[in-house]
Structure formats: C-alpha cells, structure tokens
Design goal:
295 residues, alpha/beta, TIM Barrel, 8-stranded parallel β-sheet, 12 helices, 47% helix, globular, DapA-like, 4-hydroxy-tetrahydrodipicolinate synthase
Length: 295
C-alpha cells in the first residue's frame, strides 16, 4: 500500500519553465522544498496550476521524476488525467512506479455531455492498470474547465466497485453543498479537498481533509496557521491574497508572485496559450500582495 501524508494545506505548485519552454526541474525542486518548509503539508504536482495540459507526456514524466527523486513522496499528489485514456493510464502507471502518494485524475475533458458510464469506463481502465500497486486515486472535479462533473452518485459507485482505491476528491467547483455531499459518502470515507483557502477553518473542524489550492503557493504560511492553529487573522490574509491573485489571469499572477517570493523572475515564465504579466502588471500585483502581508 502506498504511504500517504496527503492532508492539510496542499499547494498546487506551478511548474517553472526555462527559456526554451522545457520544465526547469532545478527551479521546480527548489520551489517545492521552499513550500514544504513554509507551511505546506503536501504538494499537488502537474495539476492545472502546473500547466500539465500544456506539457507533453514526456515533459510531465520528467517533472514527476524530478519530484519523486528529490522530495518526500508521501507528500506528493500528481495529476495524471488526460483527454486520451491511454495517456492517463501511462501517466498513472508512472506515478505508481515512482511511488507517489496519490494520482489526481481529471475526467476525460474534451467531449462534453459524457455520461457517468463513459467517465466510469475511463477510470476503470486507469484503476485496473495500477491494480497491483494499489495507488490511491483522487478525482479532480473542475467542471468549469473539464465540462464534466464527478457526480456523488458516480463517486459512490466507483467506491463500491474499487474498494480502497478511490481515496478522495479535489473539488474546484466552488459548490460547497456538493463538497459536503461528497464528504458524507460512505460514512466519511472520502478525503475531500476544496480548492479555496476560505474552507480551511471548516477543514480544521474535520469537515474536509484540507485544501488543495493554487494560491497556497503564496499564502502557505498563513494557510498553515489557519489549519493547524485556528488563526482567524491568518485566514483573513489568506483569503485576501487569493482574491488579489484571482483577479485577472490566475496562473500568470501566481507565477509572477512566485518569482518575487523566490527572488527569481524566471519563475514567471508560462507556456502558451498563457501569457506572462508585463513589468507594470507584475509590479502592481507585487505591491498589492505586499500591502496584505506586511507585518
């Protein structure tokens, strides 16, 4: 059974790129180590914030290799979902072989109006391919981008079909009744992670397993203070930071701010179709965040 410490504050870590557009693995590991040392309980690698769907299969595997070789694998969840089922199978098998604590799976996101049976068939291939490793599977519910929803009925059905394999859900829908419905399935057997830091107080009370957030890359110390200490002032700061970072282009904002945090502008690079902030935009963002975080 794969060892896992996937609880609490989980940052959806961005992927740095070099000037040629290849994943910058050295900077990636440096940022990951910084986050784990500054409030993050775990990391979500190669997710939406990591621009995984803008990378080739080989590039994603290179990032996975760098993460698994340099970081505590029990604290690493990796995105392995893909539009092509065969790619999702290969990435998830790679995650199992490398010893990741869990695989995070988007539904097959190109075709819209897909039935629960179709989504289940996709997951059945992925889960069966990693049966020997018993790699924990986390479902990534992000209907705004995927166009599909992991309905509570489907999730319950998958939990019955694959006992012990469906470990949790990252919910980026913002629909809190939905998230609470998932958390109540099978007597609370599912680890549910909303994507908004504003839910961390509720998570601290046991309603959720924690939070998987893009903006936790910048707010992790405050998020940790909320989840582990119940700090209401820290919650206000984390929520305010999220609001600033979510205004405009979220991922370019996060990567620009990460460049400031790491004192290295190379972290601001993004892959097409995203566009990095210009100097004026980056300076304005940095000033807004500095106002929120100053002592």
């Amino acid at each position: 059974m794969t060892e896992t410490d996937l609880k609490g504050v989980v940052a959806a870590i961005p992927t740095p790129f070099d000037a040629s557009g290849q994943p910058d693995l050295q900077r990636f590991v440096k940022l990951a180590e910084h986050l784990l040392a500054n409030g993050c309980d775990a990391l979500n690698v190669c997710g939406t914030t990591g621009e995984a769907t803008s990378m080739s299969l080989r590039q994603r595997q290179d990032v996975m290799q760098a993460a698994s070789a340099s970081l505590p694998k029990s604290k690493l969840m990796v995105g392995t979902g893909a539009a092509a089922t065969a790619d999702a199978v290969e990435l998830t098998k790679t995650a199992a072989e490398m010893g990741f604590a869990g695989a995070l799976l988007l539904p097959p996101f190109y075709y819209k109006g897909v039935s629960d049976d179709g989504i289940a068939a996709y997951l059945r291939e992925v889960i069966t391919a990693t049966e020997a490793s018993a790699l924990p599977i986390y479902l990534y519910n992000f209907p705004a981008l995927s166009g599909l929803t992991y309905t509570p009925e489907l999730v319950g059905r998958l939990m019955d079909e694959f006992p012990g394999r469906i470990r949790g859900v990252k919910d980026s829908s913002g629909d809190m009744p939905y998230a609470r419905a998932l958390a109540g399935l099978k007597d609370g057997a599912l680890d549910v992670f909303p994507s908004n830091e504003g839910t961390l107080s509720e998570a601290r009370g046991g309603a959720f397993a924690g939070c998987i957030s893009a903006t936790a890359t910048l707010s992790s110390p405050w998020c940790a203070a909320v989840f582990h200490k119940g700090d209401d002032a820290a919650l206000e700061t984390a929520v305010a930071m999220r609001k600033v970072l979510s205004t405009g282009a979220l991922i370019p904002n996060i990567k620009s701010a990460a460049g400031g945090m790491m004192d290295d502008d190379a972290y601001a690079r993004v892959r097409p179709p995203l566009v990095a902030l210009n100097e004026t935009e980056a300076a304005e963002l940095a000033a807004k965040l500095a106002t929120l975080t100053k002592a």
